[in-house]
Amino acid sequence: MLGLEKEEVRAKVRSFLDKIGVKVVLWDREGDRFVLPYDIMGRDVMVYVAFMEEYRWVVVVAYIYDLRELPDHVDREAFYKRLLTENFLRYANRYGVDWEGHLVALFEMRSEDLEFENFRTGYEGVLNTVVSFIEEVAREFNIPV
Q1: Residue 30: pLDDT above 80?
Q2: Quick check: 61 and 100 in contact, CB under 8 A?
Q3: Does the pLDDT of residue 65 top 60, yes or no?
Q4: What is the DSSP letter of 111?
Q5: Between the CA of residue 115 and those of 84, 111, 129, what are the distances in Å?
Q6: Kind plus residue range of the DSSP H or E element containing 10
Q7: Which end of the chain is more exposed for a tag (fewer CB within 10 A), N or C?
């Protein structure tokens, strides 16, 4: 790995999470990631801080919704268009779909560029994206969350 070593990257991210004031920080050794359980607007939301490509990238991901449970009444074209439009309007944070069909909010940055304010902004942006989905997108499309 170029730049910072794995342990340095992990320690730096952990210190950022502490500085932000994250109350519960679990380490998933098998997944090589931090696991941060949240209650966002009465919903249990799992947030992960993962390390990709041999720790070259730090990725913050929050699971928002299992797309396999999207109600039949939802106009899928309009729904996905809304999400893509949101991606266009957001800085650094975006919606995505994981390998298991979950809608996620995510932010990524190169580990060599790890700086507290940028990390905090991206991390909080992920949480705000979850809130935005619940308050705006789910409400607009009448999706139970």
Answers
A1: yes
A2: no
A3: yes
A4: G
A5: 28, 9, 21
A6: helix 6-20
A7: N
Residue labelled with tokens 């266009």: 88
Q: Is the pLDDT of residue 1 over 50?
A: no
Which contiguous run of DSSP H or E holds residue 131?
Answer: helix 116-132
Above 90 in pLDDT, residue 101? yes
Examine the pLDDT at 32 and tell me if it is beyond 90.
Answer: yes
CA-CA-CA-CA dihedral for 117, 87, 141, 79, to nearest 10? -150
* φ/ψ of residue 102, rounded to 5: -95, 135
Q: Say what the pLDDT of residue 92 is.
A: 82
Please give the share of the chain, as a percent, with pLDDT higher than 70.
97
What is the amino acid identity at position 106? L
CATH number, domain 6-140, options 3.40.50.300, 3.30.1460.10, 3.40.50.12780, 3.20.20.30:
3.30.1460.10
Q: Angle at which helices 6-20 and 116-132 pack, to 10 degrees?
A: 60
Domain ranges of the chain: 6-140
Please, which residues have CB within 8 angstroms of residue 10's CB and are 6 or more apart in sequence?
A: 51, 55
CA dihedral 81, 84, 85, 91 (to 10 degrees): 170
pTM given for the model: 0.91
